[in-house]
Amino acid sequence: MVQPTIGRVLTEMEREIEAEVRNRPPVHEPRPANYVPPRVNAPAMAMPDYVEHREGATEIGKLSAEAVVREYEAASKEIEEMGTELIDLVRQCEAMTRDALAVTEELKETAGRYREEAKRVFLHIENCSLVTAEVRKTCTELREKIAPPAKIDTKAKKVKPEPPSDGVS
């Protein structure tokens, strides 16, 4: 799984290097009249171990080959540095992944607490509803005991209140 990603990164790096080479100004630009060429000092780094001069090569050929191999070596070292930076970025991604997993666990715990609270509120509301229904029922029963419904006298067509009962039937 890591190989395709590294291959993609290297391919992108190669494209960036090619673009830089293409975008470089031409080597043979016209120079101003007051141009002073820079002094050439001895090479800053020794020739790499993986190359050595052939017998019979001209001095110009040797110097050109050394200059080119040094440029390639400098680019190689920069590429290796990019690899080191990439590894650092991977470590940061791994740390972010660990942190994200920890946060995900915290979120699961919070969601569980919310569900428990929802259950508690649900039961509380239902209990309140049951108590309210019981209170209404009790009130209705008490009202009926305290003030019984009026009976209608069919002969006189008068409404007579019933005498209060003592609660014994």
How many individual β-strands? 2
Instruction: Report low-confidence residues grouped into runs of 5 or more.
Output: none
Q: Structural class of the helices, strands and pairings?
A: mainly alpha
* Strand portion: under 5%
Shape, per Cα inertia axes: rod-shaped
Mean pLDDT equals 83
Order of helices and strands: HHEE
Helix content: 55-70%
Oligomer: single chain
Q: End-to-end span in angstroms?
A: 87 Å
Strand order of the largest sheet: 1-2
**Largest sheet, if any?**
2 strands, antiparallel
Number of helices: 2
| Estimated radius of gyration | 47 Å
Q: If you had to describe this structure to a student in words, what would you say it looks like?
A:
The chain is mainly α and 169 residues long. It has two helices and two strands; from the N terminus they run H-H-E-E. A two-stranded antiparallel sheet has the order 1-2. The model has no long low-confidence stretch (mean pLDDT 83).
SSE topology sketch:
Blueprint: H1 2-23, H2 59-146, E1 151-152, E2 159-160
Antiparallel strand pairs: 1-2
Entry keywords:
rod-shaped; 2 helices; mainly alpha; single chain; 169 residues; two-stranded antiparallel sheet
